[in-house]
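Following up on my earlier thread - several people asked me to post the actual chain instead of describing it. Fair enough. Here it is, all 78 residues.
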Amino acid sequence: MQYWAVLFADLLLLLLLVLSLLFAGRSRGGQTRKEQLGTEGYQEMGRKGGLSTTDESGGERAEREGIPIDESKFKTKS
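Reply from S.P.:
Thanks for posting it. Predicted structure:
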């Protein structure tokens, strides 16, 4: 009986470790992308993404509505 309790506790700890690594990597990925593009590029990408709908992409909608999107800011800074 005690064996199953220890096994369950170990599995639970392993699950928590995996989840914490997944969530830590996810938030870090966005931060890394922001560092690569710079603040202006990251904001431009957000503006374009915010315009997207299920029917059309953000770029298509921006073009249709005459909203300027400066894609040169998307370039990764080396």
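The chain has a mean pLDDT of 78. That should answer part of your original question.
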